[in-house]
Amino acid sequence: MEAKTFTPAQQVETKLHFLDYWRIIKVRKNVILPFFLLVVVTATLVTYFMPETYSSTARIEVEKDIPDVDTYQMRQYIQPYDPFFITTQFEIIQSKTILYRVIEKLDLNNRWARRLGLDNLRTDETFLLLKRRLKLSQTRNTSLIEITVYIDGEENKGEAAEIANAIAEAYKDYRLETRLETTQKGLKALQDELKRIEDDVKEKEKLVEKLRQELNVAEIDPLTGRSSGSLEDETLRKMESLRTEAEADYIQWKTLYENLIKMSRDELKRAIVRAKEDQILSNLIEQQAQAEQKKASLGPDVGVENPEYIRVNKLLETINQQIEEQLNGMLEGLKAKVASFEAKYTELDKKVKEARQIAIKNAEKFRPFTSAKEDLETAKQLKNSLTYRVSTEMLNLKVPYSSIVKIVDRAEPGKKPVLPNKILNISLGVIFGLILGIGLAFFIEYLDTSVKTIDDVERTLQAPVLAVIPQNVTSLLDEGPESSHAEAYRVLRTNILFGRKNQNANTLAVVSAGAGEGKSTTIFNLAIVFAQNGSRVLLVDSDLRRPSLHKILRVSNSIGLTSYLLGQNAIEEVIQTTPLEGLDFLPSGKLPSSSMGILSSQKMKELVAELKQRYDYVFFDSPPIMGVSDASVIASLVDMTIQVIQYRRYPQPMTIRCKQMVEKVGGNLVGIVLNNISMTSDASYYYYYGGYYHESYGKVDEDQIIRSKTSSKPKPKEEKKSEVEIKQKY
Fold it and tell me: In the chain, which residues fall in CATH 3.30.1890?
């Protein structure tokens, strides 16, 4: 038979169902329950042995340093919300600055030392004890701080309220003292600085007065009322004002004159009349108009020789001449006026330049006075500012600041203990006990690589599961054919019959990876089921290492397989009958000093061939296949091999190696028997593979149906007919 090469199936990712988790919990209940009880009992004992703790809470309202009366409208400059302010106050309240005051005020060093049975306690030690018993919290979205103190023992519950109130008072006193101390220090510094500035102002005033007298500085500015410079500076300012006026007049009249001389006589006459009201010129112009009107009225008919015409014409000439003379006179007068303004401007400009030179010299001369005057003004401004600040701080010092810390609720002794919370602690013990117990169970399950489910077998070994055998199975001879366990072996028998490819295959061996997996019990009960079906069955104990089948049948093991293979007895002498009709037994015989090679002998092969002819079915027990070659030899000699895997016993790689060894020697592995399934933790598997038949068909025995059709040793046709009947039944 050609050997097969087995490649482990690539494990595919599978999703766990809720029932899989429940199965793990049921299987590992022996781990979960003790661990759960240990945690619950421990939590309960610790809770009941813990001392009762009472608490008291004082509530205070804290604000920034704002006076009760907002005299200078300081509130508008205070930041409305500071996320770090409350956190800072938390640290201050539980600082040594505050708690040391409380310890000293309440004499906690001696009180707690006596309570603890000590001679004395240092303040730093008491501080650590008090800080551990102190809890601070903020009322949500408010500036209220809750100061909670915890004290052990009902007789000391009043002390918790006393300490909480003392902490609130100490913090309030600290804030007020700190504010007062800070304000006084600041005020003292401002007053010292103000006195220094006042002395400096006096010195600067003396210096300014001295320089005024030495440099002949004018006492009072006649225009501004302030101290001014020298008389030369005043003269320069006046002369510059006169020069500016003269320059403006000169430019105005010069511009007028230049525009008039560019005009024609008629334009000039009209412009002068509009620009300057001259009565003489106005009368002449009026007379000229009348004369021209008279001349025009005479008309051309009178002629030039007419005395009236001549008179009017001479009058008009006289008037024109007078107008011309008047215009010329006015232009000359305007020219003279322009020249006069020019001369005045020139003279004033000259004097201003001279005065400016003098002023430049005076500026250099009066520079010390000017600098001293500016320093004096700066010092006076600083003095005024400090004077205002000092007055402000003095007023703030008098205004109360009681609103920065208010004791809203004073602490009162607790009515009942707050710790331990027995219900909560025990509930948490139950919860954590379950969580930790189940977690430990799943962790152990994760570390356990043994076969746990049918899916594990079929996925890992790529072989069908022929039957699932429950726990606590014994000999079916003792339990009887109506045993609930017998149905599992009937399922195994049916699956073997239908699983064999060759109908003439009638030899079968049972192998396992390690010892104690139940292969001997499995082969024994399987032989009984076949025998109960009316078949002639031979059970061979070929486990030459630790034979056990003779103990189950309670027969002698003095002669057997080894006796025949060593030529000591004939085959008829070593085969024994059993109480069950149709079942014969071939014990292992006395174990030789060395069984090496005895099963792989030619005589063993001949024996297997002989037994195939004599019996309908021959079943071979074998030792564990790992580390012993006997099981591999037997697997290579028989027609069929089944592998027994005990539930949760050996790692999966070991079972894989067992299957590989069977296939490497050419054995025909028809399937797997999953043994020792717990009915309490894996009832679903057992019900499906074994219990279903029993519950569905009650006491109807398949053996009785088949036995009713056979009255003697079944022939091949009858065996085939029986198999057909089984096939119909399942």
Answer: 18-185+404-409
